[in-house]
Amino acid sequence: MRIFEVMRETKETNIYLKINIDGTGKYKIDTGIPFFDHLLASFAKHGCFDLIVKARGDLEIDDHHTVEDVGICLGLALNQIEKRNIFRFGWAIIPMDDARATVAIDLSGRSYCVGNYEPKREFVGDLATENINHFFESVASYGMLNIHYEVIGKNEHHKAEALFKAFGVALDLATKIDERKGVISTKGEVKL
Asked: CA 167, CA 94: separation in Å to the nearest integer?
């Protein structure tokens, strides 16, 4: 089993994250931001990852630090995945009613994030929609992976949820074990 735990404590947040890459989609998530919890649950369920997130942040200021630091912790956990004998690349196109999200990822050992999510309103529940892009930037930066995503639609709830579902499905594919693969790189290694 590929199980990774990360703890991060700063003056702004206290985060515990545990992910089982080979899980079944069980989750227990409490960030203090209910809609963010919902998005992380969608990621875990559709990616078949067992995910525990316990986050306490300075929500009296706003949700930015909590969302960012959960992204950092998820990235740090994903960076621990052995890059040998995995698919490395993953992609998904996920519809949700009026919305459609496309995500492509590469567990490349290089950080890059390109996304086009442009929210039409400032909040869904207590989550500032601008922090959705920042979450993916944090995951990519600390996970040393490429994330490319596009979202279309009218309803912000549907757009965000489709995006997190697509991220889960794409990551599930990228982390699948395939003993034939070895290290998928003409360099002979996947790292900086």
From this structure: 9
- pTM tops 0.85: yes
Cα–Cα distances in angstroms (integers) from residue 170 to residues 18, 21, 62, 103, 163, in the given order: 19, 12, 30, 7, 10
| Coil/strand/helix, residue 183 | strand
Ordered by start, the domain boundaries in the chain are: 3-175
CB 113 within 8 A of CB 135: no
Strand partners, 90: 105
> Strand pairing partners for 17?
6, 53
pLDDT in tens, 5-37: 999 999 999 999 999 999 999 999 999 999 999
β-sheet bridge partners, residue 171:
none
Q: In which element (H, E) is residue 92 found?
A: strand 89-96
CB-based contact 46:25 (threshold 8 Å): yes
Q: 5, 18 in Cβ contact below 8 A? A: yes
DSSP annotation of 86 reads B
| Topology of the domain comprising 3-175 | Ribosomal Protein S5; domain 2 (3.30.230)
